Amino acid sequence: MEQNPYIAMLYGAHKTLAIKKMMSVNAEWANLVSCHAFSDRYWGKPWQKDNYAMTDKEVITLTALISSGLTNQTALHIHGFLGSGGTLKELAALIHAAWRPRNTEIDPQFIERMSAELSSEPGIEQFISDLKNKDLSLSGLDVKSPLTGFTRLQLSELVSAISAGKAEWSKLTNLMKEAQVRGATIQEIELILRHVEIYLGESAAIEGAQAWNQITTTNDGDLKKMYLENVHTYYADTQFYEWMPSAEEDPAFKPLFDMTLALASDRVEKVETNINEYISLNRGIGADDYNKLAFIVMKSTQYREGSLDVVKEYLRKLANNVSKSDEIRTAASNVLALTESIIQNFVRFTYGHVDRLSLGELVALASVFANGHNYPNHFQIELKRSIQRGLDDKTFQRLGNRATRIVGYPVAMNAYLAYAQAKQILNN
């Protein structure tokens, strides 16, 4: 990691501290992240075109982290923002821009954390005052980005909407439309999505691509197809983020785990892909499979208010979409019907031989995986229960690697830290 030029570019003088923190989480995972997240695909060649500013990369990073509630991971990135030329005035405006979609004032504990991290910076008193000012003007971000048609404020607003996904779909599509009117190209939006993928996961990037496709009035191509082809090409020769089951495990579990992560993070559009993959790996689909899928829908939506209704509406549209295959339409229809009955009969399915854990336990673990940063106590309960049932480091490593791809590496980092804490508590 010490020799990785992109880590040096990102963290500057704080490179050694950043590496130390990542390695302390999990050395194997940290090295994989170094080889892939901090690689040419994300930080090298794509960003070198037209001399894109490092500060704009950090605008994307910080907005993604803050708007999705991953505030613990912002500490090093604020140094990267300042080290790349950003100012405290811009940083305060950026934090407000990323936080305001929550419709709450900035958390006082978060302000204290920022104050401690930046205590030696000149102008820290004014910065803290700006963070506490709920009416702070965001004009400090009216700096033109090298990305065509964007100021840093507009870039932050777009990433915040991508983070929210379906919850702010109309805002996301409107921001995409405005960007296109200002001259943004499909290649530049794909570049933003590729960067977003690191911090919010592949599912968020796919939704961003779908939003662009929905409003596009140009003939420059299908962004979702472009993005997915890029992803598949990139991962064709690597095992990182892949499931890697042992011989006795049922490979059809992977799409069920992926579906749980996607739905638990409000990425409903992944459902069709997950069902198709499940049918392929399972060599078909039957009554018991519909029950499993319905169980996952119920369990994975427990942490986000209103998300179950969003999933039901998606299934309803999928079931009625005559352009889809009969298998997909039937699956969507049956799963939709079963979500009502399974509420009354919350079955804990026994599934395969995944370290003696039932499907119910693994789905419960996956659903809180995506929300553990907001529900740490729930996460500890599920982790302790799973460890006591046989969850070991090797299995957790595979779960964590897969989650890194689906919901982003900051969520996985949080999960590794929670896992270490759970083990320490149980050992004591």
Walk me through what this model shows.
- The protein is mainly alpha-helical.
- The protein folds into two domains: 39-233, AhpD-like; 253-427, no CATH class.
- Helices cover 67% and strands 0% of the residues.
- Helix 2 packs across helix 3 (27-36) and helix 22 packs across helix 24.
- The protein is globular and about 65 Å long.
- Mean pLDDT is 82; it is low at 346-355.
Low-pLDDT parts are: 346-355
Task: Give the number of helices.
Answer: 24
Q: What is the averaged pLDDT score?
A: 82
Number of domains: 2
Shape from CA axes?
globular
> How far is it from the N-terminal to the C-terminal residue, by CA?
33 Å
How many β-strands, per DSSP? 0
| SSE sequence, one letter per element | HHHHHHHHHHHHHHHHHHHHHHHH
Largest sheet: none
CATH class of the largest domain: Mainly Alpha
* CATH architecture verdict of the largest domain: Up-down Bundle
Helix and strand composition category: mainly alpha
What is the C-alpha radius of gyration, as a whole number of Å?
21 Å
Helical amount among residues, as a percent range? Answer: 55-70%
Query: Beta-sheet strand percentage?
Result: under 5%
Say what the CATH topology of the largest domain is: AhpD-like
